[in-house]
Amino acid sequence: MIFQHNQSGTEALNIFLKLNRSGMKPDLFTFSSIFTVCSSLVALDQGEQVHAQTIKSGFLSDIVVATALVNMYNKCGSIEKASKAFVEMSTRTLISWTTMIAGFAQHGRTQQALQLFEDMRIAGVRPNQVTFVSVLSACSHAGMVNEALGYFETMKKDYRIKPVMDHYACLIDMFVRLGRLDEAFALVKKMDFEPNEFIWSTLVAGCRSHGNLDKGFYAAEQLLKLKPKDTETYVMLLNMYISAERWKDVSKVRKMMIEEKLGKLNEWSWICIKDKVHSFKPNDNSHPQSADVQKFIENLIDQVKSLGYKSEERLELTDEDEEATLFSSTSSHSEKLAIGFGLLNTPNAAPIRVIKSISMCRDCHNFVKFVSLLTSREITIRDSKRLHKFVNGKCSCGDFGALL
Ligand SMILES: [Zn+2]
Ligand SMILES: [Zn+2]
């Protein structure tokens, strides 16, 4: 049985559980696709159960299943388990090496990513384009400019791999994180092709973070020329224009959103506890524990305020065809609700894992950092763009991942 991409993750997981209960034996393809489902749901507990099953069934010796397992642990935020599963693999392919390097890179474990890359080369496995994306992103994370540029040259000269958009995106992201905006823009000019939406969004977000509004507005103009298809991008731009009180630009962006037939942000988060997936939407009271969760969050906000958290009021558009704006509170953002639910329903030291349909906003990102400090819990949030792992008041993304 192979689970379809368009089938909802929860549905697929339920079918798998039913299949298990009925006593039917899953095959190789079922195992690798159920790992993919667990990854997309950040369902670590279920993933671990399936892992145990693959050991019993003997399917773990299959390279595809084993690689899917490593990928599942990576995506569920458990880098230690991913690493262990990788070490235990009897044979490794380019894909399995690359998966593990990508995992280290995403978790901000730069040294381990680079060490593994060297091990891979020593093992005689030739890296490909994708491997280099992970290597560059690892360097970008740690702000290792010389190393990144060195690997970029090695890729071109020693391996004759032509740089693609993703390679440049990593380098641009690196310069942006370091606040070296001139170098980031210089790199854009150097590219043989037109930058994509992702690159311009990185530049917009970076310029905003570093307070360089002129460059930020320039990047925003370029981004708008590409007519992005993504609501999130427009919301990011709207917020930027609203905070600068550039109302003409606000209207322009609104008009474009209507022309592109883009609606409101489809924001929701989900969390998997035991065998159940719980989903949360902002201002949605349909979950049986909604009232308790909301109260708990308000209480939590007060507690983290005493640690130094300041809630950020944001200007947000109320409705699709309304020009009016209002101050809105971010206390009902879905990941806050999912985290609150998780904290209420899991034992004290248990890690919390949440998945979110769009990028985190800067306020929620800041809030979760404080919650991880206050509760000493490890909180992982996979949003539409990045993996955020919050431990002791810090996030693995280095604070450049909160786009909205
Ligand atoms: Zn938020
Ligand atoms: Zn983060």
From TrEMBL:
Q: What is this protein called?
A: DYW domain-containing protein
Tell me the InterPro entries matching this sequence: DYW_dom (IPR032867), E_motif (IPR046848), PPR_At4g14850-like_plant (IPR046960), PPR_rpt (IPR002885), TPR-like_helical_dom_sf (IPR011990)
Start and end residues of the PPR repeats are 93-127, 128-158
Coiled coil start-end: none
| The keyword Metal-binding is annotated on this UniProt entry | no
Q: Which UniProt keywords apply?
A: Repeat
The answer, when asked if Thylakoid is one of the entry's keywords, is: no
The source's superkingdom equals Eukaryota
Family that this chain belongs to: Belongs to the PPR family. PCMP-H subfamily.
Molecular function (GO) terms for this protein are: RNA binding; zinc ion binding
Organism expressing this protein natively: Rubus argutus (Southern blackberry)
**Pfam families per record:** DYW_deaminase, E_motif, PPR, PPR_2
> Which NCBIfam families does its entry note?
PPR (TIGR00756)
Q: Matching PANTHER family, A to Z?
A: PENTATRICOPEPTIDE REPEAT-CONTAINING PROTEIN, TETRATRICOPEPTIDE REPEAT-LIKE SUPERFAMILY PROTEIN ISOFORM 1
Q: Which GO terms describe its biological process?
A: RNA modification
Q: In this protein, which residues make up the domain named DYW?
A: 312-400
